[in-house]
Amino acid sequence: MGKRAGIWSKNALVGVLSLTVSLLAFLFGTFSTRYEVRMKRSDRLLGEFSEYYDYIVVGSGPGGGHAAGKLVKQGFKVLLLDAGKDYSDSNVNYTAPIFNPQSAEDEETALNYWVEYNENRTKVLYPRAAALGGCLVHHALITSPIFTSVDFSSIAELTGDNSWSTENMQGYWMGIEDSYQYPPEYNNPCDHGFRGPIPTFSVTVPPPELDPRALLPQEAMTRMGWPRINKWNDSNCAPHRDNEGTFTFSNSITARTGIRNSTRTYLKQLQQQYPNTFHIRPDSLVSKILFNGNIAVGVEVWEGPHLNKASPKFREESLQRIVKYQVLREIVIAGGTFESPKLLQNSGIGPPELLKSLNLTMLSERPGVGQNLQDRYEVSNAWKLNPRYHYQDLCRTEPAYCHSSWKLYGNFSQWALNGPLVGIKAKTNKTFSEPNVPDLILFGGASYFNGYYPGFAAPDTIRILNDTFTFLSLKAYAQNRAGSVESSSADPREPPTINFRQFAEGEDQDIPALIQGVRWMRELANRTNELARERGLLIGDYLMEEILPGKDVQSDADLEAWIRDVTWGHHACCSNKIGDSNDLLAVVDSRLRVYGARNLRVSDASVFPNIPGYFISVPLYVLGEKAGDMISEDSSEACKVNPVCSETSTPVLAIVLPIACALIVLVVGVVFMKWRKEVKSFDDSSIDIFLNELAKQQGETSEEEMATENPSKSAPLDLEKERAFFKELDQNGAEGLQFDDFHDILKNDVHTKHISEDDARKIFSEIDFDEEKGTINFEEWINFRMLMRHSKERASRKTRSNNLSFANISCFYPQKSGKPKQVLHNLKGTFPAGSLTALMGPSGAGKSTFLDILAMRKSTGIVVGSILVGDNIRDATFPDTMAYVTQEDLFPPKLTVMETVRYYANLRLSSNLAKSKKLEICKHAIAIVGLAPQMNNYVGGPLPGGISVRGLSGGQKRRLSVACALVSNPSFMFLDEPTSGLDSFSALMVMKLMKRLAHNLGITITCTIHQPRDIIWQMFDNVCLTAMGKLLYMGNIVKAVDWFRSLGYDYEKATNPADWILDLVSTNFEKDPSIFGDKTMKNEQDIAEAAEKFARHQELDESVLLQRHMQEIDRALQSKEKQKSGEKVSRKLSELLDVDENSFCPKQVDPANVNFPRQFLILLTRHLRNSVRNPGAILARVGVLLITGLATGWAYFDLPETLDNVNSRAGVLYFLAFIYIVIPFCQLGLFLYDRQFYAKEIAAKMYKPLPYYLAIMTFETVFNFVNVIISATIVFWMVGLGTRFDSRGQQYGQFILIIAILHTVGVQWVQVCALSLPNQDTAFAVGAGFLVMMQLVAGFLVRSSELQPSFAWLQWISYLKYGWNALMRVEFTQLDNNMDSSLQILGPDFFDLNGPNDIYTSVGVLFGFWLVFNILGFLSLAYLHKERR
Fold first, then answer.
1. What is the value of pTM for the model shown?
2. Coil, strand, or helix at residue 811?
3. For residues 60 and 603, is the Cβ–Cβ distance under 8 A?
4. I need a surface site. Which of 244, 677, 791, 848 has the fewest CB within 10 A?
5. Which residue would you say has higher pLDDT here, 386 or 39?
6. For residue 942, what are the CA distances in angstroms to 894, 946, 1175, 1228, 1232?
7. What is d(CA 280, CA 666) in angstroms, rounded to the nearest whole number?
8. pLDDT band at 565 (very low <50, low <70, confident <90, very high)
9. Hey, is 554 helix, strand or coil?
C-alpha cells in the first residue's frame, strides 16, 4: 500500500479503536465502583469497629510496605499501621547516608532492644527502628551483594512452590530497582532494573587528590590475589551472584541528590497517588489480632507516640485511645523479627506453655512461633590511622563545608558515603551446608565500629571525627538456629524476651570461618601498610596500627575466646519460618498464610527458614513484592472466607457510565469513518493511480492525430513503456535519469526536438528538485512530460497574458495633526508578462505596502497613482485574474491536501463549472506543485488544546498555498515573503516552482523576499528595489549590480549580489566602514539622491512599451473612463496631498464567484468535517456534559418527593441551570482557534461573513442541542425530577426544552466573548465575570425581594434567572394529589420567583437572549475581524 494505509484500513482501525475504548470504559466503570458498593453493604456489620478496609498491613518495613503498595495499585482499600512516627525529610540523621549510625540512636525513632547472646555475656543493645519504612530508615543503605542462588531456591525445594525460584525473585528485584550506576551502552547483562521505585547507586570513593591513602585498602585486596567479582565490580550482577572476589557496594541513594531512599519514600509517593484508598496511620501500636472463630476480622490498635517501652521516649501517659479496625479480606503482619511473633503470641497463636503463662487464650497451637531465631555473626578488626585521612580532617574542622558539599554535589560528596567502600566475597570452606556460595564478606571504612552499645554513634566515635579504620568480617549462612523470641507480657507495649544463643549450634563451622576472616583482615591491613611504605605515604612506622582484637590475640584459641565474647549482629530473622504443614515449627506456608488461622499472613524477615544472603534489605524488598502478588491473587478466596465481604454488587453507575461511554465512542467512530472517506480517485498511495490520473487529462485523441495534425496537443503517455525505461536504468545501476539521457530523449520526441542543449540543461535543472543528486526520478520526469504536452495551452496563455504597469504610485497615512505621512513616493515601472519579479528592500522600505496595492488588498491609508493591466486601466475584475499567497500557511490540520485545494476551488471557481471539471483542475494544480504523492495526507498542524497533527513539512505547506492559488487559473500571482520560515533547501524548492510557473505557464509573479541566497537571486527575471518608500531600481536583475556600480559604489565579485545590494541601501543602523567600506548609502539623503538618479534614468531610457502604457494611463485619466471602485476622497484632502482628485487608486474590491447558499453549504461541510476529525475535542465536549449529568444524577439520586427535600430539588435545578451555562467556556479555545482561518480567508474575499457565521452557528446549535439533551435526560430520570406523576412526560419535555435553550444561550455568550475581545484571557475574564453577576441576582443565593434597589435591575439581564425561574415552575406547579400534602404550600411566592409567570414566556426571553447574542456575534465577526493592511 506504500507509505499511507488505504482508506478501508484506516476505517477498520477506527472501528477497532472504538470497540476497544468501549470495552475499557465498561471494565473501568465496573472495577472503579465495585468496592464502594460492597463496603456500603457491610456498614451494618461494623459494630465495634471504627472503620473498615480490604486489607490491613501491620508494619511498614519493606516486607509490609511493598505488599501494601501492590494491593493499593490493584484497587484495594488498604490501611497501613506502624507503631513509629514518620521521619521528617529535614532530619539529616535520616536523609544523609553518612549519619546512618545517628539515625539508629535518634530518640524519635529508636527502639532499643536488650538481647541475650549467650550465658557468658550480659545483655547487648540491639537497635531497631519504629518509623514509617521500618528499619530501612536507619540501616546502612546497603543493597549489595544480591541474594545468592540458594537463598530462595531452598524455599522452593522446601515447599515445592517454584514461584520462589531464584529467577522469579530476580524478576521482582528488576521491577523495583532503579539503577543509576551503568552507562547506556551497558546493555544490562546483569539483570538490573531501571524503572522501579528504589534507586541504587554505587558508593563513590573519596577523591585520591584529597588523600591518596584512601585507595590503598582496595589495592591491598588485589595484592592479596582477590580478583574482581566481574568487570564492573558489581556484586548485584545476577549471573555472577555466587562469584568470589572484590566488589563495590551499591546503596539505596537517590541519584544526584545523595539522599537516603527507601520504602518510606515509596509509601509517601503511593499515598499521594491514592489518597482515598491508601491510609497510613503512624503512632499506631497493634495490640492483637481480632478473630471470628479462626478468621482474622480486625485489629485492636493503641494510638499514641512512643508506646513501645523499647523507645527512649516511652511515657505511660502517651496512650491516647484504643480503636478497632475491621478487615474485609486479610491482615498482613509485618512487624519484624521481634514484634511479629510477639503479636501472634499475644493474639493466641504460639506455644501453649507460653500462652498459658501469660494468661492468653489459645487460638492455635503453633510451637514454632518465635523459634528458629537466627542472625549473622560479625566481628571487627580496628586499626589506628597515623595520621587520619585528609578528607576526615576536612569534615572534622569544617563540618559546614561537608554539609554544603552534600547539598550541592549530592551522591558525589562525603555525606553521601554510608561507610564501606569496597568489599570481598570469600569462601572459607568451613560452612559445609552451602559449599557452592561464598560465606564471608570482608569490608571496611574509615571509622571505629565494634558493634552496638549506648552512645556507639556519639560524636567522639562517629566515623568522620575519628582516627580509625575498621575492617569488618560478616559470617553468612550461620548454622545456629537455637534463638527465640517470646512475648514477656500481654501488655503490647512490653518488649519481648530475645535470646540468640550464639554458637549453640554449628560452632564447629562458624567459629573457624570467623577466625579465617580475622586473619584475612589482618593481612589486608599489613598489605595496606606495605603499599603506603612503597609509595612514601607513611608518617611514622605504620599507616595502620592494630587496636582490635589486639596484637596479643594471635592463636586460634585466643581468637575463638575473643570471638565468643564480642560477636554481634544486626540482621535478625527467621522467627516465623516458612515450612511444610507437617513441620510443627513452621508458622506460615509457602504463600505466607499463618497455620491455624484464616485470612492472616506474615510478610517480613521472620518468615525466612534460613537467613538469606549477606545483607537482608534486598531479600526483604522482593519478599514484599511477592507477598503483594500472592495476596492479590487470593483476594476472592479471602472475601469468601469473611462473612462481611461481598463482591456481587453491580451499582447503577457501573452500568450507566460505561455503556454511555461505549455508545458515544461507537457513534463518533461511525461518523468519523464516513467523513474520513477521501476523493475516490487518488485514494490509494500507488504512483500508478497518480500517473493514470495525469494521463487522463490529455483526452482521447489518437497519438498519430496529435503528432501530425496538431503537434501542440499531447498524446496519452504509455505508462508501462515509461516505467520499463526507468526499470532498465535501475538495472544498469543508475539512480535516476541523467542529463545526457534526458537530452537524447528530448531530441527524439516530436514535441521537444526543437529544444537546444542550453535550454535542455536549464529545464533539467528546474525539474531536478534535489540539485545535489544530479538526476531526475520517474515522478519528476512524468511531471515534466505532462507540462510539455500542455504547450499549446501555455502558449495560448502567454498570448493572453499582459504586462502589469504602474505609474506615480504613492501611499499616505493620515495623522492626527499635520500633513499625512507618505510611505511610498511616485513608484513607476512594468512587470513583463510571464516574468518572476522580486520586491526587495530593507525593513520599512514599503515592500509589503506596494504588494498589497498591486493585489488590491490595501484597506488602510490613501493610495494615489494608476495601474495598467495590458492596455487597460486595472478595474474591479482584476481580482478574478490574480492570486495572492500570504506569508502564513494557515490551513485546517485535519483536511487532506486534496480537500484543501477542492475547498478553495469550490469557493473560487464559478458555481456553473461542473464538479468533474473542478476536480480535474485541483488534480492538475496539485501535480504542478509536486504534491501528488501527499494528495491524501493531512495538512497537519496544531489543534485546539495543543495537540499536534503530523502532516506536511513547511516547504510542502508553502507549495500547497501555491496550489490553492493556481485553481483560479490566475494570470498574476503575488506572494508575501514565500521563503520566510523555511530552511534553505525548502526555500530553493519553492522558488524553483515559482520560476517554472512564470516561464512554463506564463504567470506574472511578484513576490517580496528577504536576503535571497545567490542561487535564488539568479532565478528572478526582474527586481524592484525600494528604500524608505522610494524606488532605487526597477528592471532586469542582471543589470542591477551594474546600475549601482555606475553610481560609484564598489562591488566585490565574490559577494552575493542580493546581499551586497541590501547592505548598500540599508540605512537603519550606523555602518562600520571596516565592513561596508566608505562608499555606501548612509542616510536618507543618499537614498533620495539614488532614487532621483534612477527616476531620471527611467525618463531617459523608458521602453516603448512603458511609454505607450503611460500614455494610455494619461488618456484614460483625462477622459475619465477609469472605473472608480475605491473610496471617495474629499477635495480638502486632495489639496492637502497636492494631487489630482481623479488620481486616487482603488484599493479593495469584493468579488463573489459563488452565491450565498453555495458558500453556506461549503463552509458548513468543512466545519463539520473538521469537527468530526478532531475526536478529542468532540469526546471532551460530550464527556464533560455526560459526566456532569451522571455525577449530578448520582449525587441527588432518587430524591424523595417530600417537603424536607424541597431545598435539595431547588438546589439541583439551580446547579443545573448554572453549570450548563458555565460548561460552554470549555469551547472558548475552539472559537478562538477558528478565528485565524477566517481572518485569512475573508481577507482573500473567498466568502462573505454572513454564510461563515451561519455555518458555524448552525453546527454548534445542533450539536449542543443534542449533547445537552442526552446529559439532561440522565439527570432528570436519575434524580427523579418531575413532581406530577400523571404528567411527568410533559414535565420532562419542558425541562429538556429549557435546559437546551439555556445551554445554547450560554454557548452564544461565549462565542460573543471570543469574537469581540482580543484574546482568550480577556474573553474568559469578561465572560466569567458576567456569569458571576448573573449568579448573584438569579434569585437562589439571594432572594429577589432582598436585593438592593441599586443592584436589583441586573436581574432582568440575567438569563440564568429566567432559566432557573422556568425550571422551578415546571417542577413545583400543579402538584399531583398523590404527592406529600405538605408540598401543596409550594408556589411562586414560596420561592420568591420574581419573574415571568408563564414557563413559555421565560423560554421566549431566553430565545431573545440567543437572538441578541447571535446578532452581536455576527457584528463582531464582520466588523472587528477585517484585515487592516
1. 0.52
2. strand
3. no
4. 677
5. 386
6. 10, 6, 14, 16, 13
7. 42
8. very high
9. coil
Decide: 1283 and 1199 in contact? Cβ < 8 Å.
Answer: no
Distance CA 930, CA 925 (A): 9
Per-chain mean pLDDT for the chain: 78
Specify the residue for cell string 585486596: 221
pLDDT of residue 699: 37
Enclosing H/E stretch for 330:
strand 321-333
C-beta atoms surrounding 721 within 10 Å: 8
| Strands of 1030-1036's sheet in order across | 872-873, 862-869, 804-813, 821-831, 1030-1036, 1022-1027, 836-840, 1004-1008, 972-976, 882-885
Q: What angle do CA 875, 966, 1034 make, to 5 degrees?
A: 60
Q: What residue type is 636 in one-letter code?
A: S
Query: So what's the pLDDT on residue 400?
Result: 61
**For the chain, what's the residue count?**
1429
SS3 128: strand
Query: What span, in angstroms and rounded, lies between the C-alpha atoms of 513 and 523?
Result: 15
Report helix angle 719-731 to 778-788, nearest 10: 140
Distance CA 425, CA 824 (A): 88
- Cell 535564488 belongs to residue: 1016
Query: What is the Cα–Cα distance from 329 to 331, expressed in whole angstroms?
Result: 7
Q: Which amino acid, one-letter code, is at 565?
A: D
Could you give the 3-state DSSP secondary structure of residue 960?
helix
Residue 635 is given by DSSP the state H
The C-alpha angle 1297, 1298, 1302, rounded to 5 degrees, equals 120
User: Could you tell me the end-to-end alpha-carbon distance of the chain, in angstroms, rounded to an integer?
Assistant: 47
DSSP run (H or E) holding 229:
none
Cis? peptide before 387, omega within 30° of 0 = yes
Q: Retrieve residue 1298's grid coordinates.
A: 429549557
Query: What kind and span of H or E run contains 796?
Result: helix 791-800
Q: What is the bridge-based pairing of β-strands 440-445 and 422-426?
A: antiparallel
Q: Would you state the pLDDT for residue 30?
A: 41
DSSP symbol at 327 = E
Examine the pLDDT at 493 and tell me if it is beyond 60.
yes
Q: How far is CA 581 from CA 159, 366, 368, 374, 1111, in A?
A: 9, 11, 12, 21, 117
DSSP E strand boundaries for 369-506? 371-373, 377-385, 422-426, 440-445, 468-475, 483-486, 497-499
SS3 410: helix
CA 162 vs CA 146, 169, 192, 579, 605: distances in Å: 20, 10, 22, 14, 20
Distance CA 225, CA 245 (A): 9
Cα-only R_g, the chain: 44
The answer to whether residue 1142 scores a pLDDT higher than 50 is: no
Predicted confidence (pLDDT) per residue in 771-801, tens digit:
555 676 666 666 665 555 544 444 444 444 5
The answer to whether 1045 and 861 have CB atoms below 8 angstroms apart is no
Work out whether the CA dihedral 884, 890, 891, 892 comes out positive or negative: negative
Q: What are the tens digits of pLDDT across the range 578-614?
A: 999 889 899 999 999 999 999 999 999 999 999 998 9
The helix/strand/coil state of 482 is coil
**For helices 897-908 and 1156-1172, what crossing angle results, to 10°?**
170
Which regions of 386-543 does DSSP assign to beta strands (E)? 422-426, 440-445, 468-475, 483-486, 497-499
Closest CA to 764 of 794, 735, 737: 737
Q: Is-cis flag, bond preceding 549, omega within 30?
A: yes
Task: List the one residue out of 1129, 1146, 1125, 1126 whose CA is nearest residue 1138.
Answer: 1129
Q: What is the mean predicted confidence (pLDDT) over 985-1001?
A: 84
C-alpha grid cell, residue 795: 502558449
Rounded CA-CA distance 750/706 in Å is: 10
**DSSP 3-state of 336:** coil
**154-168, 643-657, 1007-1021, 1287-1301 — which is least confidently predicted?**
643-657
Q: Which amino acid is at 1356?
A: W
